[in-house]
Amino acid sequence: MKLDMPAGTAGFSAQRLDRIRTRLQEDIDAKLIPGAAWLVARDGEVACEEAIGIQDPATGAPLTRETIFRIYSMTKPIVSIAIMMLAEQGKLLLSDSITKTLPEFRGVKVGAESQDVNGKPMLALEATRQPITVHDLLRHTSGLTYGIFNDSLVKAEYRKAGVGSWEDSSDEFIRKLASVPLAYQPGTVWEYSHATDALGVIVERVSGMPLDAFLEKHILHPLGMFETGFWVKPEQMHRVAQAFDVDPVTGAKVRLSKVDERPAFLSGGGGMLSTMRDYLRFAQMLLNEGELDGVRIISRTMLRYMASDHLVELPLAKSGQAFLPGPGYGFGLGFAVRTTEGAAITPGSLGDYTWSGLAGTYFWIDPRENMLAIYMMQAPEQRNPYRQMFRNLVYAALE
Length: 399
Hints:
CATH architecture of the largest domain: 3-Layer(aba) Sandwich
Number of helices: 10
Number of strands: 14
Order of helices and strands: HEEEEHEEHHHHHEHEEHEEEEEH
Low-confidence stretches: none
CATH class of the largest domain: Alpha Beta
Strand order of the largest sheet: 3-2-1-14-13-12-11-10
Largest sheet: 8 strands, antiparallel
Helix content: 25-40%
CATH topology of the largest domain: Beta-lactamase
Mean pLDDT: 95
Number of domains: 2
Structural class: alpha+beta
CATH superfamily of the largest domain: DD-peptidase/beta-lactamase superfamily
């Protein structure tokens, strides 16, 4: 592998790659985002790797290639790999009901919205028609949801119960999550949710190890990802990227997670931090179908299985409030997976797979082009436009 070599061109136009810096610098100068870092690799060679702008608006410290970012939901692919490692070891089955390891979910109900005699919205509870499986958690068809991203009576119940507090223990998190209704019948509709947080707890209960310890032992340290974790030591806090206090475009107050101490709840769905170079090692392992520098994390066949569309036989899968993978994409086990050449709002290849993070981080793997790309910033209100822009610029630079 050539991941530690200086950037070359790797089949890209150097002039067109420079457009990424030029375009992002315009928006940094206009104070639309504090700063950004990005990396593109192809055929095992880094084509470009840059960091520009400000790491911390409060201090003016520059953003660098060593900056640490809150990656939020880019935690999900890492934890999904951990679950599939346990499956490869015969310690769980994707068809298992989650009550096998999370008995708190026995008797969980589905919340069906209707109206009372006065026309007031009400929530009726229905029995589940089939159990929630580990497979459902991985592909976000569990019926679970978040208390954010649009609104509903079920989401209101999440907020009322305090689901998702990082001050809870793993057991308390699961107790709260199982106490509120499901948004949909299990195995029917894709709904972004706390599913991967639940998977993190399953990792803990099946392995007998805290989630951070399991990930360090079996994924992070074998891959050489020594700066990825759930919190930052005091001596490294000066390297953590920060956002503007108020988003300059929307005027919304920006709140990012506290990262200077180990949280009580290790969120498998959104709690990790990483550097661009660390996440490169994880992404290159994915592109290599489970292996990096002689270390095999997961089998080639299992990785291909994960990066396949698992919604194709579910006719209602994309009928929920918000199908975040978007047109042209299905969903695998931890990633959105491209299912058509067209339809999507950005270029790509059939079979490319991707996910992103709430604060503005983003990556994708394109097996057909043997390419990966990573984008890092901390500007949550602006995350969607920059994901699209970055992808457009990367594909435009391919020779």
